[in-house]
Structure formats: C-alpha cells, structure tokens
Amino acid sequence: DVKVTQSSRYLVKRTGEKVFLECVQDMDHENMFWYRQDPGLGLRLIYFSYDVKMKEKGDIPEGYSVSREKKERFSLILESASTNQTSMYLCASRPTRGRVLGYTFGSGTRLTVV
Amino acid sequence: DQQVKQNSPSLSVQEGRISILNCDYTNSMFDYFLWYKKYPAEGPTFLISISSIKDKNEDGRFTVFLNKSAKHLSLHIVPSQPGDSAVYFCAASRWTGNQFYFGTGTSLTVIP
Q1: Residues of chain B with pLDDT > 90: what percent?
Q2: A30 Cβ contact partners less than 8 Å away, ≥ 6 residues apart
Q3: DSSP string for B52-105
C-alpha cells in the first residue's frame, strides 16, 4: 500500500520555537507539497517541490521554509512559531506521469502553538 | 483570489437519498478535476477524477459531472450512506501543471 507518512499526528509548541514537520513518501513521486487546512479557508498551499533540492513558493509561504534533500522526504520548517500558525498541516505527493495524477495525502499533523 | 469555490459549507441529506455537492472554478485553463473526502483528524483521500475531455465519470455510487462552459462540476452520491458523512473538497489543475487548487470544502452529513 502506497503511503505518505507524516512524522507526528499532534504537536504542541511554544511561540518562538523552531518547528520541523517531516514527510516521507514511498511512491517515487517527483512532486511533493505542504498545505495547511483551516476552517472556512480550505487547503492552502505553503510550498511545493518538483525535484530534489528544488522548491517553489505557494500561496502562503511567509513564516515557513522547506527542505528536500532526498526525493522521498520533504520537510516543512517554521522558523519561529507563532500562534497564527496553529493549524492542520498536510503533506502530499503527486507523480508527474501516470493514469491518475492526483495527490496522495498524509494523515496530517495538528500543530498547536501556545 | 479563490480559483475554486464551493459555495455550500454544509449539506444534510437523508440516508438513501442523493447528495449533490457543487464546485465552481474561474480559470478556463483547468482541465483536470478531482474530488477528495476528508474525515476529521485524517488526511484527504482521493474519491474520483474527471478530465476536460469528458463530461461525466462514474465510480460505483459516485458520479462527477463537468460543465466546461459553465465552469462547474458536481459530485453525486447515490444512495447516500451515513459513512459518507465527511468534508468533501473539489480540486482543479492543469494537466501539465504541478499544483492543484482546492475549494473550501462542503461538510456532508448523512442522517440515518
């Protein structure tokens, strides 16, 4: 069964902490994405990567950075966590070619910043 | 600017009846569309897709309709079951693009 695995289901961090959210996929997908989901706002794209060491800003990159050193791993970094970054974070991957080109999502990380 | 819109935040339907979830998009370059289902505290799971060369795609109880001229798609669930209660997101992309654009979701409640 193909998978996108996010390292933590729930996290509680303090304001100002540096936070790392890890995501690993085993499908050899070229593209990986970080979204956050907030009530009434849907899924908003933070960053994505279409290849190792490549990254592109999404719609709401401020306060975030990413790292993709290996094809299977895409990390989201909150440089200095703030309370407005409390959210559900979703990692996804997508192939560049194939019959169905939709995302496969991880289970999500519910981050609370206090 | 929201390129994909789901104007109904919530929908309640009796078990056994039809559920119709709607989605509108503004970018005429979109040519590939998906529906995802999401339970609380879980990631979204893929439900059904449609490309712009079709106007209908069926998979069991789920059918997606695409009206390109109206830039509108809809998801029909027949018959609706209590286990279908979840948040449904539509998403759109260019076939050659990397990114999907998501709507804000519709929370479906199927009443037993």
Answers
A1: 86
A2: A50, A51, A71, A94, A95, A96
A3: TT-SEEEETTEEEEEETTTTEEEEEESS--GGG-EEEEEEEE-TT-S--EE---
Can you read off the two tokens belonging to residue A59?
């719609």
B3 in contact with A, Cβ within 8 Å: no
- Is A47 within 8 Å of chain B by CB? no
Q: Do B46 and A45 touch (CB under 8 A)?
A: no
Report which of A7, A19, A4, A2 is spatially closest to residue A72, judged by C-alpha positions: A4
| Cβ contact A76:A23 at 8 Å | yes
The backbone torsions φ and ψ at residue A85, rounded to the nearest 5 degrees and listed phi first, read: -100, 5
Query: Phi/psi of residue A53, each to 5°?
Result: 65, 0
Evaluate the CA torsion angle B29, A61, B104, A37 in order and state its sign: positive
- The tens place of each residue's pLDDT in chain A, 114 residues long, gives 668 999 889 999 999 999 999 999 998 988 999 999 998 888 999 999 999 999 999 999 999 999 999 999 999 999 999 999 999 999 999 887 665 567 899 999 999 999
B49 touches chain A (CB under 8 A): yes
SS3 (DSSP) at A84: helix
